[in-house]
Amino acid sequence: MASGADRISALPDEFLHHVMSFLPAHDVVSTSLLAWRWHWHDLWKSAPALRVTGINGCTDPPCFIRFVDNLLLLRHPGARLDAFVIDLEERDFYFKPFLPAYERSVNLWFRHALLSQVRILSLRTTSGLYVYKEESPPFELPDVPIISQHLTRLHLARATLRSITLDLSGCPALVELKMEGNA
Q1: Which strands, in side-by-side order, build the sheet including 49-53?
Q2: Which Pfam families match (predicted)?
Q3: Do 102 and 65 form a contact (C-beta atoms < 8 A)?
Q4: Dist CA 85 CA 92 (whole Å)
Q5: Which residue in 39, 43, 30, 115 sits closest to 76, CA to CA?
Q6: What is the per-residue DSSP string for 113-180?
């Protein structure tokens, strides 16, 4: 094989999907834009795992919301979604106005994941973004019934619950519930 030859195109889709599962979603999409020679330009739309993190250079919450909305909207209809992870840090962008203003968007992301028969659903922050402050209402866990025959793992870190109980009776396959620093 000549030097500089394209070896990535020879890899099976399942392997490329596995590699994509370790990368933040914005890196997967960016890489696909650079890879028009490969079939990666379309492969990300059926990736079975999405890891949403802050985006370098995108400190504007509406920019972030548009990215995630488009990420989900452009997925292939019926594509399997095994894992959906939202992993954010306060340094990613200015969160104070973000969480209360965009709760509806996050609710829709959760609903999309549940409708896509997600097995692993995770919401994690590392700096207490969801802690209640008098000057801004808390971001609360989505007002989406958590009903899924497929959900096996639910991880919540720094999320505020709407009530003292979290009804997971509609998740018969749930084997792992992990809650850290939740209010």
Answers
A1: 49-53, 83-88, 120-125, 153-157, 176-180
A2: F-box (PF00646)
A3: yes
A4: 16
A5: 43
A6: HHHTT-SEEEEEESS-TTS-BTTBPPPBS-SS----SS--EEEEES-B-SSS----TT-TT--EEEEE
CB count within 10 Å of CB 118 equals 26
Which residue has tokens 């402050």? 133
- Ordered mean pLDDT values, 10 residues apiece, the chain (183 residues): 63 84 81 61 85 76 86 90 85 56 78 92 66 46 74 85 76 93 60
pLDDT in tens, 82-125: 999 988 776 665 555 555 567 778 778 888 998 899 999 998 76
CA-angle at 83, arms to 82 and 87, nearest 5° = 170
Q: Residue 8 corresponds to which tokens in the numbers above?
A: 């990535």
- Whole-angstrom distance between the N-terminal and C-terminal Cα of the chain? 58
Q: What are phi and psi of 84, to 5 degrees?
A: -130, 115
